[in-house]
Amino acid sequence: MRKVKDLRKWIAYYDEAERLVEEVALALEYYKEEITTEEEVDDAYGRAIHLFGEVELKNMLRAEEDNLGAVLKINAGAGGTESQDWASMLARMYGRWCDKQGYKTTITNWQDGDEAGIKTMTMQVEGDQAYGFLKSETGVHRLVRISPYNAQGKRMTSFASVFVVPLVDDTIEVEVNPANMSWDTFRSSGAGGQNVNKVETGVRLRYKYKDPETGEEEEIIIENTETRSQTDNRENALRLLRSQLYDKELERRRKAQAEVEAGKKKIEWGAQIRSYVFDDRRVKDHRTGYQTSNVTAVMDGDIDEFIKAYLMEFAGKDEE
């Protein structure tokens, strides 16, 4: 049914594109016969171009994982309160963007900062092609501003890391070895009522992952404090673990492809991808060169043009 739905979507796009092209041709004919105005021709042309741009963007999201939801995690960098405040600003930005897209969001982990902001946050995003769009956000985000936490009013630079992986569903098969798992429980911190603070409802899942090719081992740690039910938190932690393991498999495929196509530019986790310079009123993406002076709109979740610029430059190449 999912495949049928996807095919119907592309057929609908084709039918709409054909209709708009015919409208442009008809408007041009009428203009030559002085039945319509030049503005009406321009209007028909603008509608057609807008649709083609939308279809071209969606065509960049044709990898199997692009249609899935996303798990978005934000970690404050070094720098104490300033970086923790920056991490919370990014959490608000992505929350606003998801609301505009009509995506359902669920905060599965939230750790408040020492004085302000957050130390870390994990958010599930459910909706059509959520991962396809949000995968462009993985990396280090840099903030430059006059710090409200500095008595001298100095210009401060802060960093926060954003990490996005696909949110697996029942159609994705991921092998999880129970022997490699261990669990801890803890009391959830922050808002959530008296029960959350008194009972050990928070869970911490530790998983020993071994790379099947290199043999390197690492420990994956998942914390979930979403609900007051330890059972529910365990189930969701397992889902988040499966999402991370699925992402690691995708990364193995990407690396193998990159070795074959060595000439391609690759965006690695940990690279500084975007700078937000408040006093210069500038937000610039270092990968695509796209920038805007409307900092306020960006922080209110208007990041579509950054996502589009990334997808148009990189996403299609990954599938060639």
Automatic annotation (TrEMBL):
What Pfam families would the database entry show?
A: PCRF, RF-1
Q: Which InterPro entries match?
A: PCRF (IPR005139), Pep_chain_release_fac_I (IPR000352), Pep_chain_release_fac_I_sf (IPR045853), PrfB (IPR004374)
PROSITE patterns, alphabetized: RF_PROK_I
Swiss-Prot/TrEMBL keywords: Methylation, Protein biosynthesis
User: Ranges for the Prokaryotic-type class I peptide chain release factors domain?
Assistant: 187-203
SUPFAM superfamilies named among the record's database cross-references = Release factor (SSF75620)
The domain of life for this entry's organism is Bacteria
UniProt similarity note: Belongs to the prokaryotic/mitochondrial release factor family.
Q: What is this protein called?
A: Peptide chain release factor 2
